[in-house]
């Protein structure tokens, strides 16, 4: 009996070894093409899909400062009556299987949004098994190829460009928060059912390599959209207040006193928005706290004066951006969602399609507390000052 049992286990081990000898349906990584980014445009009644593929074999070499003689990225495109058709038409010219699991970002044009392209592509990506949710979403008024041809600095990996890896740039200069696919879906399904996306364009003048201009991506402002509509754009000059109301804020600068140019760096910003309901009217109180570092002063200033000037400018930027949003019928600071969370019964009573009525006076009070914690070696005096010497008799 024992001998038969040993023979059975021996036979079982042999069969197991046979089945483990290979994966019959494996897709070898070096035989696939990896999509890095997608661009979508709409012209002459057709959707145009752009797919950027990257050379994964150069990623480690590029990060280590290796050779840049090889092609790091290629761009393919095709058109169709729908987004799906345009993508499938690209399949007709690709030489290998396309893998969708490494998409880093998507860029839309205004024409695509007007045709419902955002809804189409998000539905495709949300359902497709290979894709994931940390795909960054951008708008552009520029040519899609100009955007997708932008490469990172100093021969770094294509995967470390500003568009495919925006978090480091945002942490250094918090202006317009990058939005990924997951957050886009969440914001679209919460009051006021609007999404703020960064607007980007190609820049060919700011950086040079070996006396040749480099393509780079630059933020131009923000776009306000719903799932099937583009409400409008706010340029950088009109969107300055948006950063101060962003709870994901990391670090930003502000210059006060005009030509005298006091430069301040703000960190650790905390924002609290509270609805105040009086006589069936809803207003909002805003409280902001931040730590301040003094970067530059050109004359002697008291800390109280510096703080006061900074508060005044921040309040002005917040209100200017809010009023610009109202012109586009937008609840840019998502005040409707604040009321939805903190006083649902009132929100339900006054909302229309998820939004509450807002006017120029809906932001009732802005209270800003700035704590100046560092000014380097000099507290509140310029480093280079004009000295006064006693006159000779």
UniProtKB/TrEMBL annotation:
Q: Where is the Spore germination protein N-terminal domain?
A: 25-201
Name the InterPro entries for this protein.
GerAC_N, Spore_GerAC-like, Spore_GerAC-like_C, Spore_GerAC_C_sf
Taxonomic classification, please?
A: Bacteria, Bacillati, Bacillota, Bacilli, Bacillales
As for membrane topology, the entry says:
Lipid-anchor
Listed PROSITE patterns? PROKAR_LIPOPROTEIN (PS51257)
- Domain Spore germination GerAC-like C-terminal: start-end pairs: 220-372
Annotated organism of origin: Heyndrickxia shackletonii
Task: Say which family it is in.
Answer: Belongs to the GerABKC lipoprotein family.
Transmembrane stretches in the record are: none
- Is NADP among the key words of this record? no
UniProt name for this protein: Ger(X)C family germination protein
As for subcellular location, the record says: Membrane
One Pfam family this chain carries?
Answer: Spore_GerAC_N
A GO BP term here is: spore germination
Assigned keywords, A-Z: Germination, Lipoprotein, Membrane, Palmitate, Signal
Cellular component, GO, one term: membrane
Q: What is its main location?
A: membrane
